[in-house]
Design brief:
The chain is an alpha+beta fold. The chain has two domains: about 160 residues, 2-Layer Sandwich (60s Ribosomal Protein L30, Chain: A), CATH 3.30.1330; about 170 residues, Phosphoribosyl-aminoimidazole Synthetase, Chain A, domain 2, CATH 3.90.650.10. The strands form three sheets. The protein has a six-stranded mixed beta sheet, sandwiched between helices. Strands 3-6-4-5 form a four-stranded mixed beta sheet, with helices on one face. A two-stranded antiparallel ribbon has the order 1-2. Helix 3 runs parallel beside helix 4 and helix 5 packs across helix 9. The longest helix is centred in the middle third of the chain and has 18 residues. The radius of gyration is 22 Å and the shape is globular.
Length: about 350
């Protein structure tokens, strides 16, 4: 008589449904902490619901969406086994993009792909996502945790995020009215944010893993681990406040991959260029470390990293000082970094 075949369960195949249920319970309070009045239902539904009451007073509401990830910064988090800040990066990369047209982020969804699900690790990740949503004032209304045994290493994971915001069409910041004489304001970044980490890891991490958590004189005694995992700054609340209270903001750019060179150029109308004054803002020490280790010229640094400017505003020169003061009062460090001039487009440095 043939031996009876033993059943192969989903857990045998590498997917632990019970651990997934434990993860959902552990993240429940984090998710609820982000809810706005427009959220309908609770965690666990098949689709996240959000009331359109958020834009009932607008003349012509326009939905603005963005999707992004964290990139290879996740490899640093995994190396150091520190997972509670990369969720902030995930939210920031999306909400700062939505903000760049003057939209208010309304709700956010996340996707976590992981080799082997750990409720504790997922809770750490989602706690960061929830913190980012609270900073941005948007609700975390849905998400997905997917185990990928056989295609990802057990300790590996990747993150994606999806944000929807809204702006009244007449209040959208499009850059169309930018003109010579307008002032470029830069708002300080918190460091590298979430771009250029493939280069950073090659230059600073590979072969030096044992020194990541040691004090570093070039970082004022801080550690490279802390500098590399410093979360991306979220600019939503202070910038929306300045936009609504002061006005005069004609264009905005989220400074991500491509640096000031590529991203500021995206908001300029034809026939104008941004003339940016080098030395007009403080460049954090982490960028000097990267530049020396990678032997990169200045122009390559400026088109790869944010170099200390995480968000840029093009303002009417008559309002620029008031906008800067409003942002400073909100806790931001603001620099006047350049002006708009007639030219062939793009960004030039002086």
């Amino acid at each position: 008589m043939a031996d009876e075949q033993r059943p192969i369960t989903y857990r045998d195949a590498g997917v632990d449904i019970d651990e997934g249920a434990r993860a959902v319970e552990r993240i429940r309070a984090h998710v609820r902490s982000t809810y706005r009045p427009e959220v309908i239902g609770d965690i666990g539904g098949f689709g996240g619901m959000f009331s359109a009451a958020a834009f009932k007073d607008m003349d012509d509401p326009v939905l603005v969406s963005s999707t992004d990830g964290v990139g290879t910064k996740l490899k640093v988090a995994q190396l150091l086994d520190r997972h509670d800040t990369v969720g902030i990066d995930l939210v920031a990369m999306c909400v700062n993009d939505v903000l760049a047209v003057g939209a208010e982020p309304l709700f956010f969804l996340d996707y976590i792909a992981i080799g082997s699900l750990s409720a504790q690790k997922v809770e750490a990740i989602v706690s960061g996502i929830a913190e980012g949503c609270r900073q941005a004032g948007c609700a975390l209304i849905g998400g997905e945790m997917a185990e990928h045994p056989g295609t990802m290493a057990p300790d590996d994971y990747d993150l994606s995020g999806f944000c929807v915001g809204v702006v009244d069409r007449g209040a959208a910041v499009t850059g169309e009215s930018i003109a010579p004489g307008d002032v470029v304001l830069g708002i300080a970044s918190s460091g590298l944010h979430s771009n250029g980490y493939s280069l950073v890891r090659k230059a600073l991490v590979e072969g030096a893993e044992g020194a990541l958590e040691l004090p570093n004189a070039a970082l004022g005694g801080g550690t490279l681990a802390d500098a590399l995992l410093q979360p991306t700054r979220i600019y939503v609340r202070p910038v929306l406040d300045a936009l609504r209270a002061v006005g005069g903001i004609k264009g905005m750019a989220h400074i991500t991959g491509g640096g000031i060179t590529e991203n500021l150029a995206r908001v300029l109308p034809g026939g104008f260029e941004a003339r940016v004054v080098l030395g007009s803002w403080r460049v954090p020490g982490i960028f000097s470390l990267v530049q020396r280790a990678a032997a990169l010229p200045d122009d390559e640094m400026l088109r790869t990293f944010n170099m200390g400017v995480g968000f840029a505003l093009v303002c009417d020169e008559r309002r620029a000082a008031e906008v800067a003061a409003r942002l400073t009062a909100s806790g931001e460090r603001v620099f006047e970094i350049g002006t708009i001039v007639e030219g062939e487009g793009g960004v030039s440095y002086v």
